[in-house]
C-alpha cells in the first residue's frame, strides 16, 4: 500500500510541475512585423519579439497554402527558447494562383496594384505555434475585392511610402483600404494574423491566453 501512496504522491507532484510550467510559459513572436505585434497586443497578450531569419523564397511549384504554412512553421521553430511558446506567421497575396510578395520598386508596385484593380484576390496567412515538442499550424484564406484604380492612384499611393514593405503592395489597415470594396473572411488575416484562429492554436497547444492577458 505504501508503494501505491508514494506513486500517487509522485504523480501529483509531476502534474503540479507540468501545470506550473504551463502557467509560467511565455509567448514569443518570431516576426519583426509591427502589424502582427499590434494584433497580439489587441488580443491582450504579453509577448517578446525575436524575429526569425529565414529564406522566404518559394519552392518550385509551391502553392500559396503550402508556402505560408511552411514559412510559419519554420519561423516558429527558429531559435526555440525553453519556457516559451513560439508563434510564427507568414502572409501572401494570391492572384490567379500567382504569389504576389512585396514590391521590388515603384514600377513593380504599380504593376501589382493595377493587376489587382477591379478584381478579387486571395490573402493567405499561415500561423504556427511551437512549444519545443508540439508544432501546430493553420492556414486562413480571405478574399478581397478592389475597386477600379488608375495609374495616378498607383503613383500617388507609392508616394505615401506605405506599400513598399507590404505583400501585394497594399495595406488594408492603412491608406490602401481606400481601394477595397468588399472582404470575404477574416479582416485581421489580411493584416497579417487571423485573431480567432491564432487564439484557437494557442489554446490547442496548452497556452492559457486568459491567464496571460493584461488586467485593465
Explain how this protein is built.
The structure is a single chain. This protein has 216 residues and is α/β, with parallel strands linked by helices. It has a single domain (25-212), classed as Alpha-Beta Complex (Maf protein). The chain is 39% helix and 23% strand. The protein is built from eight helices and seven strands; from the N terminus they run αβαβαββαββαβααα. The chain has helices at residues 2-24, 34-42, 64-77, 106-116, 151-159, 187-191, 195-204, 209-212; strands at 26-29, 47-49, 84-95, 98-100, 120-130, 135-146, 180-184. It is elongated. 34% of the residues are buried.
- CATH class label: Alpha Beta
Identify the CATH architecture. Answer: Alpha-Beta Complex
Morphology: elongated
Annotation field: number of helices: 8
**How many structural domains are formed by the residues?**
1
Largest sheet: 7 strands, mixed
Question: What is the C-alpha radius of gyration, as a whole number of Å?
Answer: 21 Å
Low-pLDDT residue intervals, each spanning 5 or more residues: 1-10, 13-22
Q: Which strand-content bin applies to the residues?
A: 15-25%
Structural category is: alpha/beta
- Mean pLDDT metric: 89
Under CATH, the topology can be stated as: Maf protein
Task: Give the topology.
Blueprint: H1 2-24, E1 26-29, H2 34-42, E2 47-49, H3 64-77, E3 84-95, E4 98-100, H4 106-116, E5 120-130, E6 135-146, H5 151-159, E7 180-184, H6 187-191, H7 195-204, H8 209-212
Parallel strand pairs: 1-2, 1-3
Antiparallel strand pairs: 3-4, 3-5, 5-6, 6-7
List keywords for this structure.
216 residues, alpha/beta, Maf protein, seven-stranded mixed β-sheet, elongated, disordered N terminus
Amino acid at each position: 500500500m505504501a508503494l501505491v501512496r508514494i506513486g500517487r504522491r509522485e504523480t501529483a507532484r509531476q502534474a503540479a510541475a507540468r501545470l506550473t510550467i504551463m502557467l509560467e510559459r511565455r509567448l514569443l513572436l518570431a516576426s519583426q512585423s509591427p502589424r502582427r505585434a499590434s494584433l497580439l497586443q489587441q488580443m491582450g497578450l504579453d509577448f517578446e519579439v525575436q524575429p526569425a531569419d529565414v529564406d522566404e523564397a518559394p519552392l518550385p511549384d509551391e502553392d500559396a497554402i503550402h508556402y505560408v504554412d511552411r514559412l510559419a512553421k519554420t519561423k516558429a521553430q527558429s531559435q526555440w527558447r525553453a519556457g516559451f511558446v513560439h508563434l510564427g506567421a507568414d502572409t501572401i497575396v494570391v492572384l490567379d494562383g500567382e504569389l504576389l510578395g512585396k514590391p521590388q520598386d515603384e514600377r513593380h508596385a504599380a504593376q501589382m496594384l493595377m493587376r489587382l484593380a477591379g478584381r478579387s484576390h486571395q490573402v493567405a496567412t499561415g500561423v504556427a505555434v511551437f512549444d519545443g515538442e508540439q508544432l501546430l499550424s493553420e492556414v486562413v484564406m480571405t478574399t478581397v475585392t478592389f475597386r477600379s484604380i488608375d495609374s495616378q492612384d498607383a503613383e500617388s499611393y507609392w508616394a505615401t511610402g506605405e506599400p513598399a514593405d507590404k505583400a501585394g503592395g497594399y495595406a488594408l489597415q492603412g491608406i490602401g483600404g481606400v481601394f477595397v470594396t468588399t472582404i470575404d473572411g477574416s479582416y485581421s488575416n489580411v493584416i497579417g494574423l487571423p485573431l480567432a484562429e491564432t487564439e484557437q492554436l494557442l489554446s490547442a497547444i496548452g497556452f492559457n491566453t486568459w491567464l496571460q492577458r493584461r488586467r485593465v
